[in-house]
Write a structure and sequence with these properties.
766 residues, alpha+beta, five-stranded antiparallel sheet, elongated, calcium-dependent cysteine-type endopeptidase activity, RIM13, protease, hydrolase, PalB/RIM13
Length: 766
C-alpha cells in the first residue's frame, strides 16, 4: 500500500463526514489508518482500496520513502480526525467537502495541511510507479471542438525559464482569459511559481494540480494525455504551447485541470482574466468597468503595484465588428496582458495571448481604449491584509423577500476607520448544473437583519453582476456595524471571504433580528374574494385580516411583501377582546395606529404597542391578485391568528333591485335553536360592478329583524348608515321559526342590493 492510498481513504472519510454518514466516514478513516500501519512496517499490498460509488481506482504496488516524523504527523492527523467524527461540523466545514463532488465519479478535495510545509499536494502522496497507466474517467474533459485524439505525453522537460514561459500562446482553443492569466503571472514581479501548482515534476501518468475554487485551494487530478489535432489541422494546437520550447508540456497539464473543473473540456465556453487568475493564484479578483475609453484615475498607482509584484493586470475588449477588428488589429471579446505602460503618453502596450501564423501581432500599442470594456486586477492578499475569514452557505431562491436572503453582520470595534474587503464566490458545479444568473451584495449600515431594501442605508450601490466572483470594498467607520445581504436569482452555493487588518478574531456572523421574538413568516394570498383593494373601495374589508394579541408592552416591526409590481400596505387597528375572530366592518381612523401610503413591492412599519387586542389588515392598492409574505419581529412574545374569511360557517346570498322603492323584506327560516346570524348589506349603483368607491353615491340604509308570525321585533335599528363598506347586523335568535329582515333606505331610488347572511347553523332564505 502507498501513502496515496491513505490519502484516498482520508479524503473519502472527510466527504462522508460532511454528508453525515458517520458509518462510512469511520470505516474509511480506519482503512486509512490500516494503510499507514502497513506502510510503516514496509508492507505492500496488491489489494485495491474500495473505490467510491461510480469510480474505479488502480491498485498500487510500490512504497515511497517518508521520514518517520512525517508518518507520525499522518498518524496523529488520522487519529484526531477519527476522534472528531462524532462532533458536528459547521456549514462551512460541510460545504468544503460537499462542494468538492461534481459528480459520482469526481471529487476535487480541499488541500489538507499536515504541517506548514507538507500538504496533500506533496509528491509523497503520488503513485510514481503505477503498474498500469492512470487514465482519467471524467467524460467532460474529453469534449473536443475539432478532430483530435488524446495521446499520453512523457514529460521530461520541466523548464521554468522565463523566456519559455513568456512564449506561451493559445492557438485554436479560444481560452484567451486563461492564457493571458498565465502570461500575466509569469510577467509579474510577484515570484508566484506556476510550476509548483503541479505535482510531481517528473514523467508520470497521473498529476495533481492545485486550483482555487469553491472557497479554498483544491486538488484536481488528471492524466498525462493531451489532445493532438489530426487531419488538416495537425500542425496546429488545441492546448497551450511555447514557441521557444515545443516540448514544454506541463503548462498544458495545468490548463487541462482548469478545463476539467470548468466542465466543458476543450469546448471552452468563456471566462475572464480576473476569474482565471484567481483560480490559478487565489489572488483577490477585481473587475473595473472602463468609462469613456479611458483608464481609471487610479491606474498610475495600479501600475506601480504591478511593478512591485502586488497585483496582476489585464484588459478585455467588448464586442467589436469584424471590419473594425481588422482595422484596429484587435479581437472582439478578447483578454490581453498589459505589457508596458507609458505614463507620459498614457499609452499601453498589450500582449496578445493568441498566435496563429506569426508573432507580428503579438504586441499592440494602444492609446484609445474605446473598444475595451474591462480592466482586470488581481490583488495579492498577503501584501494587503493580515487576516481573512470565510463562511460558505447554501442559497435557495424562495421569494424576493430580502429577509430570507443570507445576511452577515460585522462590526468595527476599533476607534479608527478600517477598510474591509468582501469577496463573494459563487461555487462551480458540474456543467449540467452550472447556474447562469446574477449575484449582488448589499452593505447596510445596521447591526441587525435587514428586512426591506430601504430600511437602512445601503452603502454599496454596485450593480448586479453575472460574474461568479464579486468584490466589495467597505470602509467601516469607528465602532460601525454593517450587514451584508447576498442576493441571486439562481439556486447555488456561495463562499463569502472577508479580508481585514483588524485582528484574527475579527469575523462576521449570521445576522440576527433586531428584537428577540420573530413569528414564522406568514404566507398568504390575495385571491378571488380576498383581493379587497385599498381602503377607498367597499371591498377593503374583504382583505386578509389577523387578530394580534399583545400581553405586555412591546416594540414591533411589521413587514409585508407582495409580488413584483404590486402596491401593498397594511393597517393596524385597536380592537376589543369580544371581537377576536371577527373581521373589521369599517376603516375606523379613530382606531388606526398607522396610515402610510401604499408602497411598491413591500411595506414596513414600527410600533410601540401596549397590551391589548389589535386587527391587522393586509391589502393591495388595486385589487390585484397575488401572494404575500408577512413578518413580525417583536421585543416580547405576540400571538397572531388569521380571521376566517367568511362571516359565518354557512353562507347564503340574496340580491334584489330597489326599483324606486325604499323597503325590502327578506324572509328566512331557522331550524335550530340559538342560531347566530351576521347580515352584511351592500348597495351597488351598477349591475356590472362588484365594488363601490368612496366618491360614489350610496343611500343611507338600516335594517331590523322581526318575527314573521307575530310581527314582534327581535332587533330594531333606528339609525341609517351610509358606510362605504355596507351595513352589518349581528343577532342571536333563540327560537326556530320564520323571521324577516326589514331593509330600509332613507329615500326611494335605484340600484342593486346584495345581502350576505352568515350563520353557525343552516338557514333557508325564502
Amino acid at each position: 500500500m502507498s501513502i496515496d492510498d491513505f490519502l484516498y481513504h482520508l479524503e473519502l472519510s472527510h466527504f462522508y463526514q460532511a454528508i453525515d454518514d458517520q458509518t462510512k466516514a469511520k470505516r474509511e478513516c480506519l482503512d486509512g489508518i490500516k494503510c499507514l500501519n502497513s506502510f510503516s512496517k514496509g508492507v505492500t499490498s496488491k489489494v485495491s482500496p474500495r473505490p467510491p460509488p461510480g469510480t474505479t481506482k488502480t491498485p498500487t504496488h510500490t512504497t515511497t520513502q517518508i521520514p518517520p516524523e512525517r508518518l507520525k504527523l499522518l498518524s496523529q492527523y488520522a487519529l484526531n480526525h477519527y476522534n472528531n467524527l462524532s462532533k458536528p461540523l459547521s456549514i462551512t466545514e460541510k460545504l468544503d467537502w460537499m462542494c468538492s463532488r461534481f459528480s459520482k465519479a469526481e471529487i476535487f478535495p480541499p488541500v489538507i495541511e499536515f504541517s506548514p510545509d507538507w500538504t496533500s499536494h506533496h509528491t509523497n502522496f503520488m503513485d510514481l510507479d503505477l503498474p498500469t497507466p492512470y487514465q482519467d474517467q471524467n467524460k467532460s474533459i474529453g469534449k473536443l471542438p475539432y478532430e483530435a485524439e488524446f495521446r499520453p505525453v512523457d514529460i521530461d522537460d520541466w523548464s521554468n525559464q522565463y523566456e519559455d514561459l513568456t512564449s506561451l500562446y493559445q492557438d485554436m482553443l479560444s481560452n484567451c482569459s486563461f492564457v493571458s492569466s498565465i502570461l500575466a503571472i509569469v510577467d509579474s514581479s510577484s515570484q508566484f511559481s506556476l510550476i509548483n501548482m503541479i505535482s510531481p515534476h517528473t514523467s508520470n501518468s497521473k498529476y495533481k494540480v492545485i486550483l482555487h475554487f469553491n472557497g479554498l485551494p483544491r486538488i484536481v487530478t488528471i492524466d498525462n494525455r493531451l489532445p493532438f489535432l489530426i487531419g488538416s489541422n495537425e500542425d496546429r494546437n488545441v492546448f497551450i504551447k511555447s514557441f521557444t520550447d515545443p516540448q514544454l508540456y506541463w503548462p498544458a497539464l495545468i490548463e487541462k485541470a482548469y478545463l476539467k473543473v470548468m466542465g466543458d473540456g476543450y469546448v471552452f465556453n468563456g471566462s475572464n482574466m480576473a476569474n482565471d487568475t484567481y483560480m490559478l493564484t487565489g489572488w483577490i479578483p477585481e473587475i473595473i468597468k472602463l468609462q469613456n475609453g479611458k483608464l481609471p484615475n487610479e491606474f498610475r498607482w495600479l501600475w506601480k503595484y504591478k511593478q512591485d509584484g502586488e497585483i496582476i493586470l489585464g484588459i478585455g475588449t467588448g464586442k467589436i465588428s469584424k471590419k473594425l477588428s481588422t482595422h484596429l488589429k484587435l479581437i472582439s471579446e478578447h483578454d490581453y496582458v498589459i505589457d508596458r505602460y507609458n505614463m507620459a503618453g498614457n499609452n499601453l502596450t498589450l500582449k496578445n495571448p493568441w498566435i496563429s501564423n506569426s508573432l507580428i501581432d503579438r504586441f499592440i500599442s494602444i492609446n484609445d481604449l474605446t473598444c475595451f470594456r474591462y480592466l482586470y486586477v488581481n490583488w495579492k492578499p498577503s501584501n494587503l491584509f493580515k487576516y481573512s475569514y470565510r463562511q460558505s452557505f447554501i442559497y435557495r431562491v424562495k421569494d424576493d423577500c430580502i429577509f430570507t436572503h443570507p445576511q452577515f453582520t460585522l462590526k468595527n470595534n476599533t476607534i479608527k476607520e478600517q477598510e474591509v474587503w468582501l469577496l463573494l464566490e459563487r461555487h462551480l458545479e458540474s456543467s449540467e448544473q452550472q447556474p447562469q444568473g446574477w449575484i449582488n451584495v448589499g452593505i447596510f449600515e445596521t447591526s441587525s437583519k435587514v428586512l426591506t431594501p430601504t430600511q437602512f442605508r445601503n452603502i454599496n450601490l454596485s450593480e448586479e453582476t453575472n460574474n461568479r466572483l464579486h468584490l466589495i470594498k467597505v470602509k467601516t467607520q469607528p465602532r460601525g456595524s454593517y450587514t451584508a445581504v447576498v442576493s441571486s436569482n439562481k439556486n447555488c452555493n456561495f463562499t463569502l471571504t472577508m479580508f481585514n487588518n483588524i485582528s484574527s478574531d475579527f469575523t462576521f456572523s449570521k445576522s440576527k433580528y433586531l428584537y428577540n421574538y420573530t413569528l414564522p413568516a406568514i404566507e398568504g394570498e390575495w385571491a378571488e374574494g380576498s383581493n379587497g383593494g385599498n381602503w377607498s373601495m367597499s371591498t377593503y374589508i374583504n382583505n386578509p385580516q389577523y387578530d394580534l394579541i399583545v400581553k405586555e408592552p412591546s416594540k414591533l416591526i411589521a413587514v409585508l411583501y407582495g409580488e413584483q409590481e404590486m402596491q401593498v400596505n397594511f393597517h393596524l387597528f385597536h380592537s376589543e377582546k369580544s371581537r377576536i375572530g371577527k373581521k373589521i366592518h369599517s376603516f375606523d381612523k379613530s382606531k388606526l395606529l398607522n396610515n402610510e401610503n401604499y408602497n411598491s413591492r413591500f411595506q414596513l412599519n414600527n410600533y410601540n404597542l401596549m397590551p391589548g387586542c389589535y386587527k391587522l389588515v393586509v391589502s393591495g392598492y388595486d385589487r390585484s391578485k397575488g401572494k404575500f409574505v408577512l413578518l413580525l419581529n417583536s421585543s416580547s412574545q405576540l400571538t397572531i391568528e388569521k380571521i376566517p374569511q367568511n362571516i359565518g360557517l354557512f353562507i347564503r346570498k340574496k340580491e334584489f333591485n330597489w326599483e324606486n322603492t325604499n323597503r325590502y323584506k327578506l324572509y328566512f327560516e331557522l331550524t335550530t335553536y340559538r342560531t347566530r346570524l351576521s347580515f352584511h348589506i351592500n348597495h351597488f349603483n351598477n349591475s356590472d360592478k362588484d365594488y363601490e368607491i368612496l366618491t360614489n353615491y350610496r343611500p343611507a340604509i338600516r335594517a331590523s329583524i322581526f318575527d314573521a308570525n307575530t310581527s314582534m321585533p327581535i332587533q330594531i335599528n333606528e339609525k341609517f348608515d351610509d358606510s362605504l363598506y355596507g351595513v352589518f347586523i349581528e343577532a342571536e335568535i333563540e327560537r326556530v321559526g320564520t323571521y324577516i329582515l326589514l331593509i330600509e333606505r332613507f329615500e326611494i331610488g335605484l340600484g342593486r342590493c346584495v345581502i350576505e347572511v352568515g350563520s353557525n347553523y343552516r338557514i333557508e332564505l325564502k
